[in-house]
Amino acid sequence: MRFRHPDGSVVHLSYCTNVHPAETLDGVRAQLRDHCEPVRRRLGRDRLGIGLWLARDAARALTNDPAELRALRAELDSRGLEVVTLNGFPYEGFGADEVKYRVYRPDWTEPDRLAHTTDLARLLAALLPDDVTDGTISTLPLAWRTPYATDPGAPRTARTALTTLAQRLDALAELTGKSIRIGLEPEPGCTVETTADAIAPLTDVGHERIGICVDTCHLATSFEDPGTALDALTAAGIPVVKSQLSAALHAEHPHLPEVRTALAAFAEPRFLHQTRTRTAAGLRGTDDLDEAIAGRALPDSTPWRAHFHVPLHAPPAPPLTSTLPVLRTALTRLVGGAVPLTRHLEVETYTWQALPAELRPRTRTQLADGIAAELTLARDLLVDLGLKELP
Questions:
Q1: What is the DSSP secondary structure assignment for residue 255, as one 8-state letter?
Q2: Fewest Cβ atoms closer than 10 Å to its Cβ: which of 94, 123, 134, 310?
Q3: CA distances in angstroms from 8 to 24, 77, 176, 241, 331, listed in the order given
Q4: Is the pTM of this model over 0.90?
């Protein structure tokens, strides 16, 4: 979906296909047929943007066979789909029964991360619509905090990898005329947990093609104020290459038994749901929601937020809620000003099948309806900010 910003530029809205796990190229094609095109039809649009997730095996198949890459581009066109952004965070296995800490490997100290991201950049340059010259890729925020924090050489290794990537992106732009930028995506528990944590390493890299991806669920989970965070990035000259529109789980009164019971329904074995609370002494947290619920690992006199991407249009029932207000505030700052801070927006609710059983979509039809409803909400927010939806 495309929108005209009051400054005349085009802002792209898509949804991320990591909600439809697929490790192979055949699986990606099935996503387009079974999910992406039906969502487009529900929205009544001739064209729908998707934030494509290409796992390692799918990316390698496309990299090794130019004919397959051309065929995928043709299929996107025939189904009324377009790709201007990729989710390069998960490497493989995102559809496994247990993902948890595995999603953070390989990290930016490992050669496979650089190789995979380089492949993704080259693929995106080929997949961009003919009238689009700018593409973006979100990626791991350097590494999970351990063992990175105990390896004195890790920062230098990661910086070298990102610098090498930037040089490759420069060369790609010279060769193709397509500008691909990479955004580190701060996430609780990682080396770069917050937008503030991103400033030093990104300043160290110091390249316009390497910036930040602001995920509004992660922003909210860490209790960051959107205005303060975005102002700091702007002041530091760190570009917001893309933003993922998502909402976290919020519990206002975690000391109450009924709130703990409600939270327990969201503690599930597949993904990590880092949980945070803000105290007078600073941010406190656990790596997963069940750790917070089970004992006294977290103070419970202040609200808790958990890294659980809840559907934008359907916050959980009381006594829980979502951080949709944080998303609204962030979006206002991102695209509501005289000039947008980013032009790539991506709805990223990948946890539909991890929701409590009574809230999960039971059919493809129900899932498509839910994704379409999320995109409709995002579209309405953009229109309210003065953007005009384009055909």
A1: T
A2: 134
A3: 39, 25, 25, 18, 18
A4: yes
